[in-house]
Design goal:
By secondary structure, this protein is α+β, with helices and mostly antiparallel strands. It has 5 helices and 12 strands. The strands form 2 sheets. It has a 7-stranded mixed sheet, with helices on both faces. A 5-stranded antiparallel sheet has the order 11-10-9-8-12.
Length: 243
């Protein structure tokens, strides 16, 4: 079923995390399939690997989307990561901002992060029973405490109306989330940051230079390292773009 995202919208002035709030709604049976939870400010915004998403109040898109997929096997749950990534990239492209995915789920413009996503799935047996798509997208914030961060305003020297642009992002989700698995994989790979280029990485053995080749069907990274092809899960390797 297409067009479900945005069927219900909940707008909060402040919350610890939109993903936490959405998870409680799902647990209590208080939200529709496709519900969008928006916040002006998060006190404990969640990022990948336990990191926090820092954002000034009312400046950026802080959003979680609830989805109850129909019979999606656990082995294909990575498609949500691909679909949300591509939705954000397509959304930014509409505003003349060319973006890529820094594996697995940071959205980069040139060498700077503009967005991040956190997908949290609940599994029942061999299927995904519910999923929460957490999105943090820098829109109008121009002063960041961290290096290597950008925003739509920085890139286009313009201020954007959040109320006007959020429906466009939701529309992108309504398209990409329902695309075919192998097509999403192919498109995601085509948008990988530093793909086919030498880049610094770090794993349990230390620093090394490798080259991203693509991803596997479980979302793990395929990397050439010397004359070998290595495969890594999300917690097994770090992309050292700071070097």
């Amino acid at each position: 079923m297409k067009g479900i995202f945005g069927s219900q919208t909940i707008h909060l002035s402040e919350v610890d995390s939109t993903n936490n709030y959405a998870a409680k709604l799902v647990s209590d049976g208080l939200c529709q399939n496709g519900a969008v939870i928006l916040a002006d400010f998060q006190t404990k915004g969640k990022g990948q690997r336990g990191n926090h998403w820092l954002s000034k109040k009312g400046k950026n898109i802080l959003m979680s989307v609830v989805h109850h997929p129909d019979d999606l096997p656990v082995c294909e749950q990575i498609k949500f990561n691909w679909g949300v990534s591509l939705a954000i990239i397509s959304f930014l492209q509409d505003f003349g901002i060319e973006a890529q995915v820094k594996w697995p789920n940071d959205i980069f413009v040139h060498n700077n992060k503009i967005a991040g996503l956190l997908i949290e799935n609940q599994l029942t047996g061999y299927f995904v029973s519910s999923s929460i798509f957490g999105i943090g997208l820098n829109v109008n914030q121009i002063d960041h405490n961290l290096k290597g961060v950008t925003s739509m305003r920085k890139e286009k020297n313009a201020t954007f109306c959040l109320k006007s642009i959020i429906p466009r992002l939701v529309e992108k989700l309504n398209y990409f989330i329902f695309c075919e698995f192998n097509w999403l994989k192919e498109q995601y790979e085509s948008k990988l940051y530093r793909k086919d280029k030498d880049a610094p990485f770090e794993d349990a053995d230390g620093l090394f230079v490798g080259k991203i080749l693509g991803v596997n069907k479980d979302g793990s990274l395929k990397l050439s390292r010397g004359n070998k092809i290595k495969e890594y899960g999300t917690k097994e390797i770090t992309f050292r773009i700071d070097l």
